[in-house]
Design goal:
By secondary structure, the chain is of the alpha+beta class. It has helices spanning 2-14, 35-40, 54-67, 109-114, 155-158, 263-267, 307-319, 445-453; strands at residues 71-75, 105-108, 130-131, 137-139, 149-153, 172-183, 186-192, 211-217, 226-231, 247-253, 271-278, 283-288, 295-298, 347-353, 357-363, 367-375, 381-395, 397-398, 415-417, 429-439, 462-463. The strands form 4 sheets. Strands 1, 4, 6, 11, 12, 18 and 20 form a 7-stranded antiparallel sheet that branches. A 7-stranded antiparallel sheet has the order 2-5-19-7-8-9-10. It has a 5-stranded antiparallel sheet with strand order 13-17-16-15-14. The chain is globular and about 85 Å long.
Length: 473
């Protein structure tokens, strides 16, 4: 029955029955779109991407984003302080009752932290004039080393707000519509990496330690051009490394659109990346175009990105064995142990066997562990202390902590789009951004899939010029 309901749910998305003009604000007594409503209101058109007047398409798409449970903020880059056709700063759509505007201020990271460069303005962000919601904002390769423009919601504007997702029990989800052209670093998030990490170039004049909470990235070296998500329990680096390493990443990569692409190629080039941190289930899951494909990294100890995770797992295991073991670091910080659940294997197979010794491979939910067994005095095979992390699951990724909780303004960082504060002034990402949505809620796979269909299941491009100046507030 559950499978039947899910199939119907997705069919409603793809083959929407656009009969009548639904009043979006009056469909439900609550604020969230629920599966039962979708199934029981199949004659409504609010999830349709069917082409029509641009204003109607915009309002349908906007309503879908806003009525998905737990909305903290949604920047569609249409809503501005002086209206869609204005030139003022971008502000966010929020849930009913939340009066926050989460205004995106232009900043030059180089000027703020290196005291080098020009003051950033809105002119540093060229506009496409169209997109899945009506606009695309270009973040491009820096023209010079001291040219690092970013759009930022200051900590003062969002501390302890619904956007400031943190602390015990909190979950968070993000969805971003973008045209990826080059680069693999930061997309958006509450992810201040700190400027005190040893840089590859000139060190910043203003030194601040990391204040990481959650962030969306374009794969980095884990899988350049993929959809990936960072999460942090302490705002700082992970596993004794100089960088954060709690990361979920998709095996697939975004479409990469040439820098000199024609309008038609650009319009067909939108990808939708996202993630869900589900605190209750201790999972961080990365999505690309609505799909979260499972991914295992074999031999993680040799992996360029995940080797600190593998070492943390090994140090955790070795610490449980009495006495100092070969390869054990007695000074390894206990709070950086990594121990995905390994109580009961999902699968067990024997890789090799001789008269007195064999190797068993056990597959758990997030790890695959190879262990050497030897016969005891009774002739029974028992586990030895010789083991290896054969494979690590990185989508979904196991994370059994709460999100870092800055209690004061000074302990927290800003929300940024297009870049993050970092100790290095290097190119990060070239992309058009068409929308950024944050939810203080763990969205379901179906909800992530539905949001990812906006502008893709029917790639209707909305021209900003066709959106009324009195677009929904």
């Amino acid at each position: 029955m559950i499978l039947v309901k899910r199939s119907l749910y997705l069919l409603l998305l793809i083959f929407t029955l656009s009969v009548g003009n639904a009043n979006l604000n009056g469909l439900y007594s609550g604020e969230a779109i629920h599966e039962d409503h979708l199934l029981n209101n199949s004659n409504t058109s609010y999830i349709s991407n069917k082409p029509g007047p641009a204003q109607e398409v915009y309002e349908r798409r906007l309503a879908l984003v806003k009525q998905t449970p737990g909305l903290s903020a949604f920047w569609d880059f249409v809503k501005r302080e002086d209206g869609p056709q204005g030139s003022g700063k971008f502000i966010a759509h929020t849930s009913p009752g939340d009066t926050s505007r989460y205004m995106l201020e232009p900043h030059n990271i180089s000027l703020d932290f290196w005291k080098d460069g020009d003051v950033a303005t809105m002119d540093d962000f060229p506009l496409l004039g169209r997109g899945p919601f009506g606009q695309g904002v270009l973040f491009r390769r820096p023209r010079t080393q001291n040219d690092l423009p970013v759009l930022m919601v200051s900590r003062e504007m969002m501390h302890d707000s619904p956007l400031d997702v943190k602390g015990p029990g909190s979950s968070v989800s993000m969805v971003v519509w973008l045209i990826h052209q080059e680069g693999s670093h930061a997309i958006a998030g509450l992810w201040h990496e700190g400027t005190d990490t040893p840089p590859t170039g000139i060190q910043a004049e203003v030194l601040e330690r990391g204040r990481r909470q959650y962030g969306m990235f374009a794969g980095m070296v884990a899988n350049s051009g993929a959809s990936s998500a960072h999460i942090s329990e302490n705002g700082l680096p992970s596993f004794g490394d100089i960088y954060a390493r709690h990361l979920a990443v998709t095996p697939e990569k975004m479409k990469r659109i040439p820098l000199d692409a024609s309008d038609d190629i650009l319009d067909a080039g939108w990808s939708v990346v996202g993630f869900v941190f589900d605190n209750e289930n201790n999972t961080l899951t990365a999505y690309l175009d609505g799909v979260a494909t499972d991914w295992w990294i074999d031999n993680p100890a040799d992996n360029r990105f995940f080797h600190p995770n593998a070492n943390a797992w090994r140090q955790t295991k070795l610490a449980k064995i009495p006495g100092l073991q070969p390869g054990e670091d007695p000074d390894y910080p206990v709070d950086q142990y990594y121990s995905p659940p390994e109580d009961s294997p999902l699968q067990e197979e024997f890789i090799s066997e001789s008269t007195d010794e064999r190797v068993v491979l056990r597959t758990y939910e997030f790890t695959k562990v190879g262990t050497v067994q030897r016969r005891d005095e009774n002739g029974q095979f028992i586990d030895t202390d010789t083991f290896d992390l054969v494979s690590l699951k990185v989508n979904p990724y196991y994370f059994n902590h709460d999100i870092y909780e800055p209690t004061t303004l000074e302990e927290g960082g800003p929300f940024t789009i297009g870049r993050v504060i970092h100790s290095n002034r290097h190119p990060t990402l070239t992309a058009y951004f068409g929308g950024v949505a944050v939810y203080n809620h763990a969205l379901s796979a179906d909800q992530m899939n539905i949001l990812a269909q906006i502008g893709r299941s029917d790639p209707y491009v909305i021209e900003l010029a066709d959106i009324n100046s009195n677009a929904p507030k």
